[in-house]
Amino acid sequence: MKRSISILCGLASMATAVAMAADVARAAKASPPAKEGPANKAAPAAKAPRAKKMPPPPALPVGQIVDRNIAARGGLAAWRAVNSMTMSGEMDAGGKQDAKLPFVMSMKRPQKSRLEIKFQEQTAVQVWDGNQGWKVRPYLNRNEVENYTATETRSAAAAAELDSPLVDFANKGTKVGLAGTEVVEGKNTYKLKLTLKGGEQIHLWIDANSFLEAKIDGEPRRLDGRMRKVAVFYRDFKAVGGLQFPHTMETVVESVKGSHKMTTQTIKVNPALDDSLFAKPQLQQAAR
Q1: Backbone torsions φ then ψ of 194, nearest 5 degrees
Q2: What angle do CA 256, 260, 262 make, to 5 degrees?
Q3: Mean pLDDT of 54-67
């Protein structure tokens, strides 16, 4: 599992889903089409919009940018009152069938998460109980429970947050600095540099008008023998229970054709989620 840089609600938890979708996409590409039909055209290379020349936004202290972001998302008290959340929708997998994969993400404080993705009548699962993680990947013919790798464990421990990276950032051990301003998809943004508790650094771009998240660094991926940058764009914010959530997330990998888009259709705040939902899946343990 790749780093979850909070959001489906937790901007991080969706990057986890995108990373899992990338694995499923490889399986989708290897699968024969379900029926005859016109061949799909190759997806065009994903290109970031050319930056417009525009005056920079007003200079603001980083603390004020953070405060305005939290207020725009619904307020600190409201986020602290959220103890659980579920989100469901569809994500792109591409492949010969241009598959749309249904997903369900469940989260519960502190740092519990469960992601389910359906593909060809099979359900892939990723679970993090706050200390350990497991995955089941039937689309790769791995019909057993696999423990997270050491790298996956570090990423999950650092990123499995229910809320955004800026909510209670100091209590999470995160340091936030201003790294300048940039135009992102035609919008002025403040570029923040976040240094996480474990020392990992990521960038988060905040819309200078709405003060909602516009973009965040994704976990770099090794493709064709080299590491490639990953960016996740947040769009279509809507209010749910007085809190603002992006309902579209698009992940773009440097120099790679196409992109992965996730569309959230339903969000439930504070549903009853039993802790057993985040326990190790009851399947045969993978041999080591």
Answers
A1: -105, 125
A2: 165
A3: 95
